[in-house]
């Protein structure tokens, strides 16, 4: 099997030739370690533009952001391929430079521009949408314009890397749940869920319509799988009560997964946190797969496999807090072997880091991929 057949077979809950490997992203510092640093770093470029256009450098930086993002994700795809992965996610992040230290996005969120070894790293700080009245007056993002940007962005990367690695569309940073709560802050969001749930429903539906347009654009550009990205919980459980999730979020997720299915594709949910209490909710929403299954958040892989392994393709479970950041090759291999022994039998499993952050080391990722090839041959137990 090639990487495409391998990933799609797992998403069909069947056994491919071996367990596929997937990574949601690579930090730019790790991309640089794999490919070598580019001639001009992000911060050198920002400084060059500031000097050339001192009066309107933020506007000039924003004009070039689309090309910058295409280059960033292209390098990410190249590095992931060189590390041996079967799949990587790509997606637009529609920021506007506020100055050389901050982004603002169409949902009213402020992001700090942090320095990740001379690469720009966006860090969420706060939201401007402090009330329904502010949202009513807000100059809202244009779904059609964002879809056009997604199509152009995806088409360029797809043409370059479709024969090397399986590309999955993603709404990272702009998923339904995160874009809503972050635009107002978790305290205001929680208050509105209780006092004004119709407002939260309106906000979820607004973002759902945008995501559905992005899905259609990415599939029109050649992709076959979409990931809805948004952390629904923490180690103690979900941020919203399950009953509120069913009332406010479930119809939106159903609309989104139906859009992907109507285009002949698949839809994955990425969420950190402890989701043990809402696994049936994820199935009912129509998702084909679930990532990240973080063991550090209390996600019990064996129980998950037993409960929903015949309904969801499971992705993830390799810890990034230690195993992929500081672990030895033996520790990485042991973690991969154990994970595959639990989730691999019968198919419907894709090995992946639970998330990604700057401290994850490329050599650990390479060891993970090598271990998957060693222990993930079907039938499980025959390889290695």
Walk me through the structure:
The strands form three sheets. An eight-stranded parallel sheet has the order 1-2-7-8-11-12-13-14, sandwiched between helices. The chain has a four-stranded antiparallel sheet with strand order 3-4-5-6. Strands 9-10 form a two-stranded antiparallel sheet. α7 (143-161) packs parallel to α10 (197-220), α9 packs across α10 (197-220) and α14 packs across α15. The model has no long low-confidence stretch (mean pLDDT 97). The chain has 384 residues and is an alpha/beta fold. The protein has 15 helices and 14 strands.
Q: Portion of residues in helices?
A: 40-55%
Mean pLDDT, to the nearest integer, reads: 97
Can you list the strand order of the major beta sheet?
1-2-7-8-11-12-13-14
How do the helices and strands follow one another from N- to C-terminus?
HEHHHHEEEEEHHEHHHEEEHEHEHEHEH
Total number of strands: 14
Secondary-structure content class? alpha/beta
Beta-strand content bin: 15-25%
Shape: globular
For the largest beta-sheet, the strand count, sense and barrel status come to:
8 strands, parallel
Radius of gyration: 20 Å
In whole angstroms, the N-to-C terminal distance is: 19 Å
Spans with pLDDT under 50 lasting ≥5 residues?
none
Alpha plus pi helix count: 15
């Amino acid at each position: 099997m090639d990487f495409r057949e391998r990933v799609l077979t797992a998403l069909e809950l069947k056994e491919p030739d071996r367990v596929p490997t997937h990574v949601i992203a690579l930090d730019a510092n790790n991309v640089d370690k794999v490919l070598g640093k580019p001639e001009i770093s992000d911060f050198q470029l920002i400084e060059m533009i500031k000097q050339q256009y001192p009066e309107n450098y933020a506007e000039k930086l924003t004009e070039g952001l689309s090309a910058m993002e295409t280059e960033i994700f292209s390098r990410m795809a190249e590095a992931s391929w060189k590390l041996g992965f079967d799949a990587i996610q790509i997606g637009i992040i529609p920021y506007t430079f506020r100055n050389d230290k901050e982004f603002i996005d169409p949902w009213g969120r402020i992001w700090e521009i942090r320095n990740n070894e001379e690469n720009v790293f966006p860090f969420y700080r706060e939201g401007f949408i402090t009330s329904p009245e502010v949202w009513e007056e807000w100059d809202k993002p244009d779904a059609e314009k964002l879809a056009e940007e997604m199509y152009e962005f995806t088409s360029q990367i797809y043409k370059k890397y479709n024969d090397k690695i399986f590309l999955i569309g993603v709404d990272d940073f702009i998923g339904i749940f995160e874009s809503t709560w972050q635009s107002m802050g978790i305290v205001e969001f929680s208050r509105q869920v209780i006092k004004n749930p119709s407002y939260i429903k309106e906000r979820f539906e607004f973002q759902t319509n945008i995501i559905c347009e992005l899905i259609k654009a990415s599939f029109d550009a050649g992709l076959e799988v979409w990931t809805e990205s948004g952390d629904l919980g923490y180690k103690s459980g979900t941020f919203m009560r399950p009953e509120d999730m069913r009332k406010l979020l479930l119809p939106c997720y159903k609309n989104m997964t139906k859009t992907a299915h109507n285009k002949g594709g698949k839809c994955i949910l990425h969420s950190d946190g402890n989701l043990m209490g809402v696994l049936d909710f994820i199935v009912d929403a129509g998702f084909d797969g679930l990532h990240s299954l973080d063991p550090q958040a209390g996600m019990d892989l064996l129980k998950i496999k037993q409960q929903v392994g015949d309904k969801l393709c499971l992705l993830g479970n390799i810890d990034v807090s230690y195993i992929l950041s500081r672990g030895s090759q033996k520790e990485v291999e042991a973690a991969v072997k154990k994970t595959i022994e639990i989730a691999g039998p019968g198919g419907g499993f894709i090995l992946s880091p639970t998330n990604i952050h700057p401290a994850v080391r490329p050599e650990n990722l390479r060891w993970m991929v090598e271990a998957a090839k060693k222990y993930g041959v079907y039938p499980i137990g025959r390889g290695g």
